[in-house]
Amino acid sequence: MRIANRIERFIIANGLNLSEFDKSIGVANGYIGKQIRKDGSVGSHIIEKIISAYPAINVRWLMTGKGEMFEEPVADRVLNKPVDKDEVIRSDVQDLTIVEMGKDTVSLLVKALELYDTSLRMGSEIYLLDETEPKVRKGFTRQNDF
Question: Which class in CATH covers the domain with range 3-82?
Answer without folding.
Answer: mainly alpha
